[in-house]
UniProtKB/TrEMBL annotation:
Residues 44-85 are annotated as: Disordered. The Tat system comprises two distinct complexes: a TatABC complex, containing multiple copies of TatA, TatB and TatC subunits, and a separate TatA complex, containing only TatA subunits. Substrates initially bind to the TatABC complex, which probably triggers association of the separate TatA complex to form the active translocon. The gene is tatA. Part of the twin-arginine translocation (Tat) system that transports large folded proteins containing a characteristic twin-arginine motif in their signal peptide across membranes. TatA could form the protein-conducting channel of the Tat system. GO terms for cellular component: TAT protein transport complex. This is Sec-independent protein translocase protein TatA. One of its GO terms (molecular function) is protein transmembrane transporter activity. It comes from the Bacteria. Keywords: Cell membrane, Membrane, Protein transport, Translocation, Transmembrane, Transmembrane helix, Transport. One of its GO terms (biological process) is protein transport by the Tat complex. It comes from Microbacterium endophyticum. Residues 53-85 have a biased composition (Polar residues). It is found in: Cell membrane.
Length: 85
C-alpha cells in the first residue's frame, strides 16, 4: 500500500482550500497556522522541562527524606543507660 496521499490528491486539497478561503485570505491563514504551531511547540517544550525539573526535585526530596530517616532511626547513646525507668 503506498502513500495515502499523492501529488494529485494534494493538488485537489489545495484547490478546495483556495476555493473555500479565497486567495486574499491564504497568507493570513498560513501565518495563523504558523503561529499556532510555534505556540504549541513552545508549550510542549515547557511541559517537558517541567517534567524534567519535577523529576529532579522529587529525586532530591526522596534522597533527603531517606537520609533523615536513617540518621534519626538510631539516636546516639549517651554512654550511661537511663535509670529513671
Amino acid at each position: 500500500m503506498g502513500n495515502a496521499f499523492g501529488w494529485p490528491h494534494l493538488l485537489i486539497i489545495l484547490a478546495v482550500i483556495l476555493l473555500l478561503f479565497g486567495a486574499a485570505k491564504l497568507p493570513a491563514l498560513a501565518k495563523s497556522v504558523g503561529q499556532s504551531a510555534r505556540v504549541f511547540k513552545g508549550e510542549m517544550k515547557a511541559m517537558k522541562d517541567d517534567d524534567v525539573s519535577s523529576t529532579t526535585v522529587d529525586n532530591q526530596s526522596n534522597s533527603t527524606e531517606s537520609a533523615t530517616t536513617i540518621s534519626t532511626a538510631n539516636p546516639p547513646s549517651s554512654g550511661s543507660p537511663d535509670k529513671s525507668a
